[in-house]
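Mods, move this if it's the wrong board.
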Amino acid sequence: MSNPIDTTPAAPSDFIRDFVADDLQSGRQTKIHTRFPPEPNGYLHIGHAKSICLNFGIAHEFNGVCNLRMDDTNPEKEDVEYVDSILTDVNWLIGGWADANLGLKQKAESGKQKAESAAEPFYASDYFDQIYEYAVRLIQFGKAFVCDMSPEETDEYRRNAKPSPFRDRSIAENLDLFTRMRAGEFPDGTRKKSGR
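Not the wrong board. Structure tokens:
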């Protein structure tokens, strides 16, 4: 008598899922909360689909929540058409599979009227002050700095594993530059906060 072959597909496994499982098993975490953070300045593409599958998949597999958070850091380029399109695409892709894991917030939390339902995505801009304070703390601890390299220079330095020539500025100089960046003193894109 032969043994029947088990045709049940194996659960996905990779280093991310292994870390999540270890954190839950050890008690370091009790609930899994992931996020999908598209920029609402265009339509989703195949790379977004992969991210949706990963982030909603992990939330689904571990009975967690995946927040849909619009990364609206450049409001001039963002449009309600893209927010609505992203919502439609996400709901289509996760429908019947991970829709119970979708994390949204009530519109009253931010006052933004970007979607037609009672719930809406989270928006990074709602947390700007908090994120700014975190960045200040990182600078104060010497873990972040203001970088003046162009995007091309940044790419070159990363490819060659070279540190930014601006990473050794003093904490005081970095705090001064970062405060002035927030005040809009410098043209967009000329300076950015970087981690060490």
